[in-house]
Structures
1.
Amino acid sequence: MAQSTLDSMPGASTGTVVVTEPLNFWGGKRVKPRQEKNAEPVFEPATGRVLCQMVPCGAEEVDEAIQSAYAAYQKWSKMAGMERARVMLEAARIIRERREKIAKLEVINNGKSIIEALVDIDIAWQSIEYYAGLAGTLAGQHIQLPGGAFAYTRREPLGVCVGIGAWNYPFQIASWKSAPALACGNAMVYKPSPMTPVTAVILAEIYKEAGVPDGLFCVVQGGAETGSLLCHHPKVAKVSFTGSVPTGKKVMEMSAKSVKQVTLELGGKSPLIIFKDCELENAVKGALMANFLTQGEVCCNGTRVFVQREIMPQFLEEVVKRTKAIPVGDPLLESTRMGALISKPQLEKVLGFVSQAKKEGARVLCGGDPFVPSDPKLKGGYFMSPCVLDNCRDDMTCVKEEIFGPVMSVLANNTTFGLASGLHTDCFSLDISRAHRVAENLEAGTCFINNYNISPVEVPFGGYKMSGFGRENGQVTIEYYSQLKTVVVEMGDVESLF
Ligand SMILES: NC(=O)c1ccc[n+]([C@@H]2O[C@H](COP(=O)([O-])OP(=O)(O)OC[C@H]3O[C@@H](n4cnc5c(N)ncnc54)[C@H](O)[C@@H]3O)[C@@H](O)[C@H]2O)c1
Ligand SMILES: C[N+](C)(C)CCCC=O
């Protein structure tokens, strides 16, 4: 049942888990791949060991999953919002109950520290709980018209929605997409990243256990080809995508062919502005939170840190001291604050950005090297020491491109991205207006004032410019998973012009 892979979690430690259960899920159960010939190994980032095999779904499997989702949609969409809410609240409760086991499995597949994974799982059940709360509130409007005629609007689901996720927040992304989709009466077929295939299917099992109709939340495994099959399928009404800008553009292009709605949650290169009147200790902590969560593999990270000249020396001294003290190592240890990057190629890419930054004139104040923990079982892991670069200029590669690793570039504005931004200043003095003036002028979907990377589920999250469109979280997301029908009712005779 729902606890299959999770059953082995309590005693599990880094380097011990192998996942052999099928990772697809439709029709209310795990489904074995039809043929194993295209299997790809999935690695445990902390050890470099093979964790499981990911077998991509082909056209027939994708179609089967979508048909199963469509059948479930016919039942689920006819239920009252409050009935859907009860099932979703039960799913949230089960996730909360199993948070430690799910978080452990997430760490083993993703490499992030357990302390962060626990927060990710909490945000996941909170998201389901939040949208369960909204499910019963979905309503239309009544509009009085002349002569007793009237119109009313109905907020209706879209149908089968597709979710395509990235590898940095595997369980959380699946929850952020499925929670509003299900609350509105849709079904969802979800494709996780091929690098993190193991926890989305746990979510599917939990939804099933909570009482959704079989097929309502399906998981198909695969990479670009499977993703493309989903985007082209005629029975799919919407695609919600989280990933890179180049893939997001392709998803939009494919979806446009059959006018599917699209939400794009893409990359970023967000600025964090530190003013001289800030509370320095908080600004330093904010900069670390803005750069080093999940080994720096976070879309909204504030990786371009602009510091007012007068406080630059103190800021750098404190940031470097704290960065050097970050415990890097076994991600399942509670004391670890930075785990392993997702893959060897990702580690090499990030180290390459550091070398390029040096060539272009940046100064490495700390880190930026491969890191080999003393524990022998971690020798093959994808670790690096967190890095702070200064002497950075707007035209440097490290300042323009998304690195997606633990590298902070310190400098001062011009980017095609617009996901997030942040600033640290004194909001309690007479100059209270500055924070809000700057927030208004930053071209980004989010501006964090005096903190960074906090994302309560009630608050909308999403990008401006090349960072995408549509939103996740908050009440507004209901609009991205539903459509408005207008019903116009005549109460008298038809006045025809003909
Ligand atoms: N804005 C956000 O909320 C957010 C959150 C997490 C990650 N991201 C971004 O994601 C990127 C890193 O994740 P990634 O490397 O997994 O991104 P990616 O674009 O390589 O892959 C994302 C997903 O798209 C799938 N995919 C790849 N090619 C496809 C195609 N042709 N058609 C359909 N699907 C396809 C992948 O299999 C994966 O599931 C970064 O740029 C990061 O900023 C954004
Ligand atoms: C929960 N965070 C930290 C805001 C990350 C959201 C997903 C982006 O990669």
2.
Amino acid sequence: MSGVWGTVDVGNTSIHIGLFAAADSRPLPAPTVTFSAASHEPDFTSLEALLPSDSVAWHVVSVNRPGQAAFEAWLKANRPGDSCRILAHTDLPLQISVAAPQKVGMDRLAAAVGANAIRDPRRPAIIIDAGSAITVDMVAASGSFLGGAIVPGMRMAARALAGQTDLLPEITVDVGEVPTAIGTDTLAAMRSGLYYSAVGGVRELIARFTAELIGPSPQVIFAGGDAAKLAPQMRIECVTIDHLVLGGVAIAARAAKGSR
Ligand SMILES: Nc1ncnc2c1ncn2[C@@H]1O[C@H](COP(=O)(O)OP(=O)(O)O)[C@@H](O)[C@H]1O
Ligand SMILES: CC(C)(COP(=O)(O)O)[C@@H](O)C(=O)NCCC(=O)O
Ligand SMILES: [K+]
């Protein structure tokens, strides 16, 4: 064994991979190496060179079965000595207070594990994972996952606009410059609508989640491909942690080893 955890987050757009030193004892460990591939027909060619020659213990959370199958097939063909564990909710050090925990996306639950490692233990947390979909989830001050909300991500919404109209093109919501709200042509109007509806939707959900709780105000934690676009518009204190999900998976790997 190389003393390396391989962690994998198979989302609907990207497969995110991180290597962690098994000896990393920080509350939320940070990856030493990261790699990403598209979930649809992923190319892992340049992953090989990043991996140690000794065997790696892989821990996977997945919400996209074809992407997961492609990773498992690559591992079998290229890294036959490695172990691979596809995590279920029961593998996470997390209390899940919903009726059907097995139906909750493992990326949402792994993010909650990551959030629990960094939040003030007296305060609940709201986690926004802005990827293919945007999920806004709540963990109680006790650490329990309470559930949340799921909305289309910005790219998904942009594709829906283009795909279900005759005249609208597909755009990328690239906010190098924050768009003006009053769009004066089609593209500007789409850019504004896509961006500010995502911003406003997340803000409304944060406000409503906060209002449904009693006790200290929640900490707000962003992750995912569009986190950097959304977080600056929240007008409340929030942090962005790129490795929230992978760090949560590494914590699960660490907890599983400790209990064996
Ligand atoms: N270069 C890019 N390629 C794809 N998506 C991007 C890119 N830059 C930003 N995005 C945004 O990030 C989202 C994907 O984020 P990610 O966290 O990887 O998603 P997932 O976890 O669903 O796979 C896309 O839906 C899109 O809105
Ligand atoms: C909500 C999601 C589609 C988000 O996926 P992502 O944007 O990370 O690709 C995923 O977590 C999922 O498929 N969840 C299953 C249903 C649920 O969480 O209740
Ligand atoms: K997401």
